[in-house]
Amino acid sequence: GAVVSQHPSRVICKSGTSVKIECRSLDFQATTMFWYRQFPKKSLMLMATSNEGSKATYEQGVEKDKFLINHASLTLSTLTVTSAHPEDSSFYICSARDPTGPFTEAFFGQGTRLTVV
Amino acid sequence: ILNVEQSPQSLHVQEGDSTNFTCSFPSSNFYALHWYRWETAKSPEALFVMTLNGDEKKKGRISATLNTKEGYSYLYIKGSQPEDSATYLCAFWSGYALNFGKGTSLLVTP
Lengths: 117, 110
Description:
Structural class of chain B: mainly beta
Number of helices of chain A: 0
Oligomer: heterodimer
Helix content of chain B: under 10%
Helix content of chain A: under 10%
Low-confidence stretches of chain A: none
Largest sheet of chain A: 7 strands, mixed
Number of helices of chain B: 0
């Protein structure tokens, strides 16, 4: 099946610094990628939809200036957590769908565990 | 945010037991219902994508049913094995993104 690669898998950063997370579709072109966040014992929550060549669409309550999304090519989307704070510590995971059909499965990256100290 | 509920939250069964869990979702404007299996330290992997009311899909010992009119889906595992231990996620496709439940965490002990 299709593969989505996410990097890094784990990162620890100091409060106030920025962290970039990459999500790549390895064998298909993803015009749309999705970024999710999961806090302990909670659901995967959609943060934003990343659209190739255009601005991302953010869900209500997600600060677009804090979570910068860039989808510059059909195989790469990046999420940058700017000026990270301890409350941003969470599990972030991206997904993409092979766009050849309306009801195809989603493929997920491995996720990134972010800890802000 | 579309409300997707899964129950139970966790389940512990013995090897060989059969088990099932539930996913409930909005019954209006239905597009598709996905089931994923998420093992620790791995990416979630798709089990089923279900689109039609009354759909029943099967993959080995795992099967799923779909009722779009009442907004629920069941996932069944027959003869559970330790390797079935994982979190099982269902997700409702809204037309542009997947909305996930919290998952059912299954532990199968020998």
